[in-house]
Predict the structure.
Amino acid sequence: MNKGLSLRKISYHLPKNVQTNDQLKSIHPDWDIDKVQEKTGILQRYIADKDETSLDLGFLASKNLFREFDLMPQEIEALLFISQTPDYALPSSSCILQEKLSMSNEILALDINLGCSGFVNSLAVASSLLQSKAINNCLIICAETYSKFIKQNDRTNKMIFSDAASACLLEKNNSTSAIGYFNFGCDGSGAKELIVEGSGARDNLERNHQQLYMNGPAILLFTLSQVPILLKKTLNKNGLSLKDIDLFIFHQASKLVLDLLCEKIGIEKHKTYSNLDNKGNTVSCSIPIALKDAFLENKLLPGNKVLIIGFGVGYSLGSTIIRW
Amino acid sequence: MIDEKKLIEIIEKALELKKGTIISGDEDWYSLWDSLGHLSILVKLDQVLDGKCSNIKELSKATSITSIKEVLISNNLFKD
């Protein structure tokens, strides 16, 4: 493990608009909301305003982080911005945020286009940079607004995805905190199973024709076949077994997926954490928000070993173990 | 390995149908085979077949009893 690397400073920001399942019942009386809720475990979602973007949410999450932990923006040496709904194809949102957050002109600023595995894979990049002594700290911002690509009558996606942003600081310090070895996965054969066609340079469509498509069954099969393998590899790489882990935090995909993974891997329910009911699936933000919530609820304590694993769009996966 | 009787039983359980609905010839139940219903079928199949289904990508596109049967046969998980 990379000792002396701490990820304890995490904040997040959620849009003010909350969409509950009860509201959806009145909008879509023909939908069997209760049945879907039973599978997803999601009771409500956050929806960004029409003129509110991932960049805006990421900015506010970062301001929360600076305020909560008394941080000076000028002290930050690198900024990673993880999103699949950036303001522009160019320039990078991270460059815009450098200026908006009054950060130093000498920082490394990178955008990373990844979804559900985005936080873990970016953490790998950040911890490598710290380990190589290129930088001493890194601000990792995850921000997502999938709602902008979900149509009014899309029952599948509308009841799952939630907009949010998280900001966390990975830093060197003298604590016992540590970041473990990482494992990764990628299978581009699944690229079309979770996609917004026409949203980039290829066959570009008008904005109102761009729509999120998710093949739920294909994603489920990929998850059930690949996540248990990656999780075991991560345990092996870090010289640990299932019983050594105090808490498992999976990407908050849906209750169905989390329950099946626990059953398949053999993880006791009390060793997992989920906030799906009130946060929904916030894509790349789901793991940092779950880490923060678990910490606030005293389910994640200093010294605990927590295994985090992100999986989804791409297909892409990433996993590591954190000593909190 | 499962047979036709077991496959039908799995689908009926997954879609919360009364036993015998599928062989009754009444096809009203088919409307329940939406994306959520399909997820439930895959979950039950995977459980019954000891996790072997999650590695079969073709199952995500098999949305009829016949097509599921064909995919299972080609993976030696179905006996006539």
Summary: Chain A has a mean pLDDT of 96. The radius of gyration of chain A is 19 Å.
